Amino acid sequence: MTFKFFEELFEIPLRNGLTKPKRIRGEGYKMINMGELFKFPRIKNIPMDRVPLNAKEYANSLVEPGDLLFARQSLVVEGAGQCSIFIEDKEKVCFESHLIRCRLNKKIANPLFFYYYFSSRHGKQAISAIVEQGAGAAGVRGSDLAKVLVPDIDIEIQNEIANVLDQFDNKIEINRQANQTLEHIAQAIFKSWFVDFEPTMAKIAAQKEGQDPERAAMAAISGKSLDELDQLSQEQQVQLKTTAALFPDALVDSELGEVPEGWSEKALYETAEFVNGYAFKAKDFSSDRSGLPIVKIVELKNGLSEGTKFTIGEFREKYSIKNDDVLYSWSGSPKTSLEVFKWFGGDAWLNQHIFKLNFESEYQKYFTYYLLRHMKPTLIATAENKQTTGLGHITVADLKRLLVTYPDENVLAEFRYTVGPMYEKCSSLDIETRVLAELRDALLPNLLNGEIKIGKAL
């Protein structure tokens, strides 16, 4: 395979984005920030900050479909030079100063092909060679990026390879959307039951108006009107009636305000056992990727990779993780790192800065998982108040200080019965997506060197 300088494929020179301080953000044009680049490798119709643009900025700093965006700076070495591709948006979109825009000549270069190349092991190795480590951050220069050597491949072959890999990503996107829909439904149920107390509030309102409190709670739980309840099957009505009976019909005062009678207040720390990972050292790493992987925040976000460290060491059982464990990343950039995850990467060891959550019961697992998702804004705000150099963290002291309303065991069990199928379906979609991504990433080098022909890859 032959190579050429990346700049030989450019339609226009590389360009850095705009500096727009927070005080002027809120209105104007959508702007891609570092957060979007790291969260969305394929950027298409996603929420973004808005900024005003003058005429010169509008002329020079918009992105077009097919533009590649590279992270010019990152707090971690692995993030420097990370590549995303702008697919489309219904509005005009610009990009911020920590990003480099690359617009290729589409007559000789397929942007999607080069997005996949720079997302592959070979492309990341090429980028890592130009990464410079500075004080507290790593970065790449546009001038160095332009001189990176890339495969010199006929455009027709580029198109064929990009089409094969794009089919994987299209399926992954379908899974992601389905997963997101299910998560939103489950989260809405959590909020209705445990934040807004809608079944209990419906009972109280019905009692005041001389109506049937149980039917009012049934309507609140199902999202149906009272008239629509009669259109449900007998089995559905019986199930709703059983669920409604579990909710109290009165509120009582507590430290958190009024809560359903019989429910309690607990520290967030008491809703699970939070076990911090192990502080692995360089001497623990194996030189040949033998043993089990060490899971850091980057593995939670992106799965295992060439940069993942392995160890053959033996450590306390509490630091081991397996499929379907629930983990919470408690340190890092608050808006991008503080998150609850399900792990599906197989047996591994857990690094520090991540909590493994152990539960007294299966019921508690579902409650705490969706509780952490619901409390994400509160946890982010808590960490931001303590952040230094862009980093923040959630401590055990924070978990002990933050109080939550905790239902009785019967309601917990019913919540598990209601959202469990959604949780499990999301898990199966996560697993399928992980497998698809691994197959996609394994295909590219084999397609490049001709070991797999296009027809056989389809």
UniProtKB/TrEMBL annotation:
Family: Belongs to the type-I restriction system S methylase family.
UniProt keyword annotations, A-Z: DNA-binding, Endonuclease, Hydrolase, Nuclease, Restriction system
Xref: PANTHER family: TYPE I RESTRICTION ENZYME HINDI SPECIFICITY SUBUNIT, TYPE-1 RESTRICTION ENZYME ECOKI SPECIFICITY PROTEIN
Entry EC no(s): 3.1.21.-
Major enzyme class: hydrolase
Record-linked SUPFAM superfamilies: DNA methylase specificity domain
Range of residues in the leader sequence: none
InterPro entries for this protein: Restrct_endonuc_typeI_TRD (IPR000055), Restrct_endonuc_typeI_TRD_sf (IPR044946), Type-I_RS_S_subunit (IPR052021)
One Pfam family it belongs to: Methylase_S
Name of protein: Restriction endonuclease subunit S
Domain Type I restriction modification DNA specificity: 5-184, 260-408
Keyword Metal-binding found: no
Organism annotation: Marinicella sediminis
GO MF assignments: endonuclease activity; hydrolase activity
